[in-house]
Amino acid sequence: MQQSFITSACSPTTPFPLNNLPYGIFSRNSTVDSTPAVCVAIGDHVLDLSSLSSLFPQIFTGPHLPAPTAHSVFSTPSLNAFLALGKPAWLEARAALQDALSISPQRCPDLKNATAEQHAELLPLHQHVTMHLPAEIRDYTDFYSSKQHATNVGTMFRGPENALPPNWLHMPIAYHGRASSVVKSGTAIRRPCGQLRPDPASPPSFGPCRLLDFELEMAALIGGPANQLGDRVRVEHAGDRVFGFTLMNDWSARDIQKWEYVPLGPFGAKNFATTISPWVVTLEALEPFRKPPQEQVPQILDYLKAGPDVRGHCTYDIHLEVLLQTEAKETPSKICTSNFCNLYWTVAQQLAHHSVTGCNMQPGDLVASGTISGTESSSFGSMLELSWKGSKKIELVNSKAAEKRTFLQDGDTVYLRGEAKGDGFVVGFGECSGQILPAFG
Amino acid sequence: MQQSFITSACSPTTPFPLNNLPYGIFSRNSTVDSTPAVCVAIGDHVLDLSSLSSLFPQIFTGPHLPAPTAHSVFSTPSLNAFLALGKPAWLEARAALQDALSISPQRCPDLKNATAEQHAELLPLHQHVTMHLPAEIRDYTDFYSSKQHATNVGTMFRGPENALPPNWLHMPIAYHGRASSVVKSGTAIRRPCGQLRPDPASPPSFGPCRLLDFELEMAALIGGPANQLGDRVRVEHAGDRVFGFTLMNDWSARDIQKWEYVPLGPFGAKNFATTISPWVVTLEALEPFRKPPQEQVPQILDYLKAGPDVRGHCTYDIHLEVLLQTEAKETPSKICTSNFCNLYWTVAQQLAHHSVTGCNMQPGDLVASGTISGTESSSFGSMLELSWKGSKKIELVNSKAAEKRTFLQDGDTVYLRGEAKGDGFVVGFGECSGQILPAFG
Ligand SMILES: [Ca+2]
Ligand SMILES: [Ca+2]
Ligand SMILES: [Mg+2]
Ligand SMILES: [Mg+2]
Ligand code: NI
Questions:
Q1: How does residue B401 score in pLDDT terms, banded at 50, 70 and 90?
Q2: C-alpha to C-alpha distance for B111 and B116, rounded to whole angstroms
Q3: Residues in chain A with pLDDT < 70?
Q4: What is the pLDDT of residues A156-192, one digit of tens each?
């Protein structure tokens, strides 16, 4: 664990030690009309990078992120301007902040030596700030990169012999999603209404979704200068375009999806809401948790092949959990335990494939993993899989009312949590949650 | 025809009479660093609305678009701010501009009476300006609303008995597309590379698309305040969210599409480029060309039903053409003649369906019609249909070289054109074109 002069950042259980330093957008609860700006999380505090770069410009000395640039990109209500600068600036910012926050700064002790008043101003507590969506999402894409998830869904809908679509092992398949409805953690989710056709022998009807679900995912936030339209991002450079990851819940209306999705893919069943966590954990913070990708058989095409050291061509040992809190319960019940390592395609491969036809990838794009299911039934990342299409009840432990679920009910709150465990420290993602509101009548 | 003091706007053949007044974003070729701003087309000229609202603020007097607001929204490099104001402001702008440009202004003669120098400044010729993308596209959605197109594609790929997907007559089906690759007319289109699997018995290969196609479409540009996430836009109000229409070419890589699209829909086969025309023709300009929607059988669900007077619940008599110019030819050959009336679902129904699950529709969203094919084979809106999957050659008339085509070749330029024919006048859309560049090696 890297030691910080901020005591709470040195706890072995804080999700935000100096090793992490995830980025987010915050505003102060105390100040009327506090303009959102960029911060990093450090222990129990957030560090206000807009004020920091104004008060101590000497912290930002590098060629890619000189102080005026730092102050300009950190004083906006989204990460987009910082994302656009690209990897050299991200690395400089991390080095500068890790030094300034360390217990013995080598380059710039000014933050450590600041007055108590300055500390209070620069380092508000988490409970005194409100977190916002970390970026203005440009385009949002959802991959389908867990082999077990694709196998589960395929088995349920097409039978075990045709479980994986024929293209699945040859390319990371994906669909374009709806960017406008990507919302921050804590946003209440209205149960959608739409067309349902539970009985194919009867005409479709209109009404509230009855099979409302979550999907446990993680999403990469893309940065760096956009590739020109017509050019592609090669797999060996794709990782340079990945700033970091958030948790993501791709809320899904299974009954609406079933009736609408052939032949153009999911649409209204997905576009009503997608929740992401407020903190973007950088690829640098995840590097210690890097693992080799899953073995890919059959042989993949050259444009998807990369060496073992290519940035982002890997998986990460990130523990993931889903908890469900019903209105009758005081504490949430864990209903799924999974891991980012359950993804078959790497983020470098996803970006290489996404752009291979010439699609321009822009700062602020959100590229999601797809539902992350493992092989154990307790690791399935959706209620569709956990309840096996509603055929078995999911037990909610520690529920006084001995409640069970197949799909989500009104009032239920879903929490996604993620953390990577280092030697004596934890790299956490914060929370990704949302409560289901009843459908409009 | 409404008479303007601008002579060229009174020609019976100009696409831009006073009846039209389409909006676009222009910059001056003469001025170094001319900042793009909002204009309308009028005859051979464009009217600079940024300068107009500064020089003659008295033209903009209404409660929804007072002069300072007008100047602010017209001095930005996209229509988004104007779109966000909504229909009351759009109607005021149209009334003010139609008066100011008329041959006998009733409310404000100042533009007509301006000096020659002022006219030259405010009304540059089309050839002295460069047109830009009319809006910063937020989310882009592509519907599939021509019954004949869906039937043609279904017949080719699934046989005549299962031509239309089971959901097709019950809802306007659609997929989310890629917003970042929506480009302005004239942008060269790089032939995409990607995964192909022409022979299902052999493994997929990587290479340039061999079945490159256009799709003749029109796209609605959305405005008005965004509906809250979780709310829907009802069919009777949906038309208030439609600012106007552009022509759109949804470039498509048929071989890439065929291998990738099951089960998540088209992805890389579409996300490399989508071209729209520079001029947005407003719903008001199209009102004289309004026609009742096609009969919809079987009965549709209530949320899609609307009365005959509902804005946007209609079709429009807009003649559409596709022309193909090869490198060997001097003039383009017409290869398709279609009409907007070939759409089965109305734009009001498309928006009602798009938002029915609670999707928030934002100013700057682009909502495309899908390929507009009629019943005649000469009206099919893609080469896939015109060549019937490549099984018959498309003759290029007036070609010295007696050229034929099944799909697009490098160097080919595709032009989409659209016009509505009034009594002694024409409402035109300008051009939507793009030339195919060879794939990168
Ligand atoms: Ca998903
Ligand atoms: Ca299309
Ligand atoms: Mg979603
Ligand atoms: Mg397209
Ligand atoms: Ni503290």
A1: low
A2: 11
A3: 399-401
A4: 988 999 899 999 999 999 999 999 999 999 999 999 9
Look-up: residue for tokens 């592609």? A232
- CA-to-CA distance for A93 and A39, rounded, in angstroms? 12
From chain A, the residues in CB contact with B187 under 8 A are: 229
Element (H, E) at B287: none
DSSP track, A270-315: TTT-EEE-S-BEEHHHHGGGEEPPPP--SPPPGGG---TTSTT-SE
**Which ligand has an atom closest to residue A219 CA?**
1
Query: Which pLDDT score, from 0 to 100, does residue A157 have?
Result: 85
Residues of chain B in contact with residue A176, where contact means CB-CB under 8 angstroms, are: 175-178, 267, 271
**What confidence score (pLDDT) does residue B34 get?**
83
Per-residue model confidence as pLDDT tens digits over A98-134: 999 999 999 999 999 999 999 999 999 999 999 999 9
Q: Are the C-beta atoms of A408 and A383 separated by less than 8 Å?
A: yes
Taking an 8 Å cut-off on Cβ atoms, the answer to whether B203 and A357 are in contact is: no
Residue A149 is among the residues annotated as catalytic for this protein:
yes
Contact B134, B167 (CB under 8 A): no
CA of B214 to the centre of ligand 2 (A): 9
Cβ contact B382:B373 at 8 Å = yes
What is the pTM (predicted TM-score) of this model? Answer: 0.97
Give dist(CA B346, CA B354) in Å, integer. Answer: 12
Residue A138 CB burial class (10 angstroms; 0-12, 13-18, ≥19)? buried
Q: Which two tokens mark B66?
A: 């007072």
Q: Classify A334 as helix, strand or coil.
A: strand
Q: In this complex, do A360 and B206 lie within 8 Å of one another by their Cβ atoms? A: no
**Cα of A144 vs its chain's centroid, Å:** 15
- Report strand pairing: B205-208 vs B315-316: unpaired
Specify the long-range contacts of residues B55-61, CB closer than 8 Å, at least 24 apart. B55/B114, B55/B118, B55/B122, B56/B100, B56/B108, B56/B110, B56/B111, B56/B114, B58/B108, B58/B110, B59/B96, B59/B97, B59/B99, B59/B100, B59/B108, B59/B110, B59/B111, B60/B92, B60/B93, B60/B96, B61/B96, B61/B107
Amino acid identity at B193: C
**Euclidean distance between CA atoms B64 and B87, whole angstroms:** 9
The residues with which B140 forms a beta bridge, in sequence order, are B366
Cα–Cα distance measured from residue B238 to residue B196, given in angstroms and rounded to the nearest whole number: 40
Contacts of A177 in chain B (CB under 8 A): 176
Q: Among all ligands shown, which has an atom nearest to the Cα of A140?
A: 3
- Asked if A204 lies within 8 A of B176 by C-beta distance, the reply is no
Catalytic residue selected from A71, A149, A237, A313: A149
Other CB atoms within 10 Å distance of the CB of residue A58? 14
| Tokens matching residue B134 | 């009319």
The answer to whether the CB of B140 falls within 8 A of the CB of B362 is no
ipTM, interface predicted TM-score of the complex:
0.97
For B312-350, letters b (16+ CB in 10 Å) and e give: bbbbbebbbbbbbbbeebeebbebbebbbbbbbbbbbbb
Q: What residues have their beta carbon closer than 5 A to ion ligand 1?
A: A 142, 215, 250
Q: What is the dihedral of CA B223, B225, B227, B232, to 10 degrees?
A: -50
> What is d(CA B21, CA A439) in angstroms, rounded to the nearest whole number?
42
pLDDT at residue number B212: 98
Residue of A177, A359, A361 with shortest CB distance to B268? A359
What amino acid occupies position A336? C
Cis peptide before B22 (omega within 30 of 0): no
* Catalytic residue numbers of B, as ranges: 149
The encoded tokens of residue B367 equal 């909502």
Total number of residues shown for chain B? 441
What is the whole-number distance in angstroms between the Cα of residue A218 and the centre of ligand 2? Answer: 29
Closest partner residue to B360 (CB to CB) among A181, A189, A362 is A181
Nearest-CA distance B104 → chain A (Å) = 45
